[in-house]
Amino acid sequence: MNDIAPSSVPPAADSEARLDMLAGLSRRLLDHALAEGTDQAEVSCSEDTGLNVNVRMGEVETVESTRDRGIAVTVYFGGRKGSASTADLREDSLQATIQQACAIARHTEHDPAAGLADAGLMATDIREFDSWHPWDLDADHAIELALACEQAGRDHDPRLENSDGASVGSGSSLSVYANSHGFVGRERSTQHSLGCALIAGRGEGMQRDGWYSIALSADELESAATIGRKAAERAVSRLAPRQVPTGEYPVLYSAEVARSLVGHLLGAVSGGALYRRASFLVDSAGTQLFPEWFGIEELPFLPRGFRSASFDAEGVATRESPLVRAGVLQRYILGSYSARRLGLQTTANAGGVHNLQVASNAGDLDSMIAGMGRGLLVTELMGQGVNNITGDYSRGAAGFWIEDGRIQYPVDGITIAGNLRKMFAAIEAVGSDVDTRSHVRTGSILVGRMTVAGEG
């Protein structure tokens, strides 16, 4: 039975009224900015609230309640841009913010790519995505959940003598984006989490691992007991790690780390890296990067999606579209500025991508392990050894050695290396074990051959 109950009386029941206030404030700021002689202007207003609790070894470490507000104004005089921000709603402070933005713009260099996204691209169909689920969570209940989660994990196995703690978080966000094209977009969302990290063993043989659950609605979180137990099982499974001989082997990325490979792709096909020519995938749109069965779709309209949205950070209407189809890179990740620098059109990705789904062609993790025969299962990555310009890839890793289609023992202190372009082409399978705790939804990914640096 889940020990997490959804709110019956939302703590932010006035969210619509607050959005009305932010929308009205945005329109006033735009009017003031245009009165200063600007050609174009845009305003972003947000209000965020949150509660975060951390416990460790049965004791409360931190309880943090947050309430933040942000107002950002950007103005354009031709190709000159200026931005300023404030959290103060007093009229004199708002006027000073506009004047600061204008003063900055008047002293910047002309940039022909600067300016709002084209007016004809603004979203007109603003949808709801079932993303507003406030949790009536007070500090006492949050502490109770965190303590129960940690205790469930520590009770699971006597080798769990230490803990990195458990945490509970709940937050809500209201935001309005408006610009001088007449566009006003409103969004509201909630996000809740519960996690635990435990330490197994003693001395130099200690191993740490954990588990967490995250959702837009509290009733979709895994129970505290389940999270604690999974954290315990993962930590204990890593005890007594061994090395593996240095060589070239198949490498299976578990689902929770596989999305990092998608992240490297996104970084390489994002507009900023491309117009600076700081990417190994410059001029790669329309080329075969992956096997023919491989695909990635952007799905901005998913109910309860972590990044569902009707419009991007510039008000441009989002749309479902492939990023990779039949292994071919279909497009880049562009906002209006980077698109202009590249002589292209925005892909409605100002502010990032909106829910990516990687196509699966294989079964769950167990079946992928059975099918790979011999190689490395990676469950943790360390370090940032990725060169976005060359695609060279080298990261510390931990996980499990696979022999005869079964996990044999944990491994630690190894490095996996390759080149991302070659790694993308060498992907042999994507599992059906999709990790849904992110806006990048993928199962485990098997790369047919990589260099594994272990002993010898």
TrEMBL record:
A GO CC term assigned to this protein in UniProt: cytosol
Domain Metalloprotease TldD/E central: 133-239
GO biological process per UniProt: proteolysis
Gene3D superfamilies documented for this protein: PmbA/TldD superfamily
InterPro entries, sorted: Metalloprtase-TldD/E_C, Metalloprtase-TldD/E_cen_dom, Metalloprtase-TldD/E_N, PmbA, TldD/PmbA_N, TldD/PmbA_sf
Domain of life: Bacteria
Domain Metalloprotease TldD/E C-terminal: 246-454
Transmembrane segments: none
Name the UniProt record assigns to this protein: PmbA protein
Organism: Lysobacter spongiicola DSM 21749
